[in-house]
Amino acid sequence: MEAENKRRFVLGCLALLLVNVLWVVSAESSRFIFRQAKFERPFFVTYVKACLFSVYLINFCLSPRCRRFFSDRLAGLEEQSIDHSVENRDLSRALSEPHYERVNFLDKDNGENTEQEDVQSAGNLFAANIPKKVSFNEMREVRILPENEATEAYLARLPYTVWIRIAHKYGIPDTFRVKQAYRLSLIFFPLWFTANLSYSEALNLTESSIVNILSSTSSLFTLLLSSLIPSSTSAERFNISKLLSVALTVVGVYIVSSVDQTSFEVKSPFGIVWSLFGSFGYAIYAVALRHKVDPGGKLEMPMFFGFIGVNCMIFLWPLLLLLNLLGLERLYALPNAAQWLYILLNGILGTVIAEYLWLRACFLTSTFLATLSLSLIIPMTLIADQLLWKTNFPIYLYLGTLPMLLSFFGATVLSACESWDPVLTVVTWTVCQVQRLCCRRRKALKKRTELDMEQSISLITEPPSP
């Protein structure tokens, strides 16, 4: 791993640690909203948190880049409505006044009459009895484009990768990135909202520690989906060592699930189902986004999340009315000042900041490590529940966190060494050693058998002594 990649990997790991802390704070504040503040409306809370993503577009809307983008769009619409004749007339007006210069048919640098050779070679193709002659005008008309249009025409003829580097260096407005961010937000905002809604529903029905423990199974779904939706980076590829890391996480989840949950405040067993469904949704969201975005390209993450907030605000508000009409979740009365404070604090810390850092860490490290890092939330939530809510957990719950922590550190090493598979290496070495040992014993047995046969033949054929 190069120095720049190492620095990016370390920054990604630090971002994941910070995200875990923010998500623990968010989980505890969500529990306070649902339990203590008696505001049991998970869909409304998730909708408000999603709408807070739109604050990322404030910087874009106030920047000159936004004005250039919309001016270019309006100019493009105006150009489409103009007639071709008017278009040609405006183009002729944009050109400079014509001036004439003499055409030099002789290439003085090479000393060869290239134009005449081309004419003669073309004339030979149509050689006939009647001689043909082509004459060219000695003068040509020259018009010069304005400097801005000439620059745009030059940039339009460049390769796309070269144009991207120039646009990034000199701040040329990149219309494609805005379109790409909006198109991706249209695809992924239902996935993101569904996963977060499932997480909020689980927090409303189950203890936050149990929800976070079961949410760590997203690493298993991520590994399985990575094998079905392969990425171009080697850090996302399936191997045996990653499967073992996930197996350790599953063992920890099994230990936690086997604990007697009568000491917990569980309103409904559907809380566990919501937790698993949310972890599966997060896995689809992370793997599909990493597959959709080219690692060589750059995703405008603030713009992407800003468009997610705008799309949720526009397309999902009718569901609030529908849930109210069906009696599944009432819309009124609206939250009071204290409830609004906790909802906004939860949205800013656990959604606006944490989601951005988590997605950034996915691209700095790997999707597998980012989802497996959710296991670090478990000991943090256990400590937070004991300190804040005086919840007593069995010893088996703490034992279940040990394999999860071990799997996270193992995944960190595997992500740092992208193409290294230590488990497969050990298994291959063991199989080779066993095969070598079996071959040696087979050869020794064969040699021993041949020696016994020679001795037996010699004893049989040897004549008796007189």
Q: Which terms would index this structure?
A:
signal; two-stranded antiparallel ribbon; single chain; transmembrane helix; 72% helix; flat; 2 domains; 466 residues; mainly alpha; EmrE-like; transmembrane
TL;DR of this structure?
This is Solute carrier family 35 member F5. The protein is 72% helix and 2% strand.
What does this structure look like?
With 466 residues, this protein is mainly alpha-helical. The longest helix is centred in the C-terminal third of the chain and has 40 residues, at 422-461. α2 crosses α16 (337-364) and α10 packs across α13 (270-292). 72% of the residues lie in helices and 2% in strands. The chain has a two-stranded antiparallel ribbon with strand order 1-2. It folds into two domains: 3-66 and 177-420, no CATH class; 421-452. The chain has helices spanning 3-36, 42-51, 56-62, 64-81, 84-94, 114-125, 147-156, 160-170, 175-205, 208-215, 218-228, 240-257, 270-292, 301-315, 317-326, 337-364, 367-372, 377-388, 395-416, 422-461, and strands spanning 99-102, 139-142. It contains 20 helices and two strands. The chain starts with a helix and ends in a 5-residue tail after the last helix. It is a multi-pass membrane protein. The chain crosses the membrane at residues 43-62, 181-198, 210-228, 240-259, 271-289, 301-320, 340-359, 366-389, 395-414. InterPro entries: EmrE-like. It comes from Trichuris suis. Belongs to the SLC35F solute transporter family.
